[in-house]
Amino acid sequence: xxxxxxxxxxxxxxxxxxxxxxxxxxxxxxxxxxxxxxxxxxxxxxxxxxxxxxxxxxxxxxxxxxxxxxxxxxxxxxxxxxxxxxxxxxxxxxxxxxxxxxxxxxxxxxxxxxxxxxxxxxxxxxxxxxxxxxxxxxxxxxxxxxxxxxxxxxxxxxxxxxxxxxxxxxxxxxxxxxxxxxxxxxxxxxxxxx
Length: 194
Description:
The protein is α+β, with helices and mostly antiparallel strands.
């Protein structure tokens, strides 16, 4: 025979099982909602990633196109500035048959000034060498000459002008450098072994 105590234990167990089942259902539902939210967030993040990757790819393509255009057309300004010099050369050649050599020489000097002005506008400047000391950073020695009139390692003459572009060397000046003439008495003493 069942006692009252057994009946209460059964009722408590059913209540506990019912509460546990209900709690498990609620936990399952919460986990499913959290999973659903995470899946939605993951999908949004994937879409953001794909958009960012596409934007980066488009940026790279655009940058490559712009770089190619800059390389292709970047010289346009300097070319436009050199064209008047070319026109002046054409005019000089038309008048080359002229018997007046002095006028022709003046025309050539004018064209040289015009070209130097154009180059200066674009950041090109000549390296001045007259009477300067030899500097291997800006000069290339093509030969050495002995001279009593110049200091040792002083530039005697310039064979080809050097140029800087915005302060950076693009071509060194090609020069002749002085090698101090030795005293004749020293040479005689050395020859005699003294």
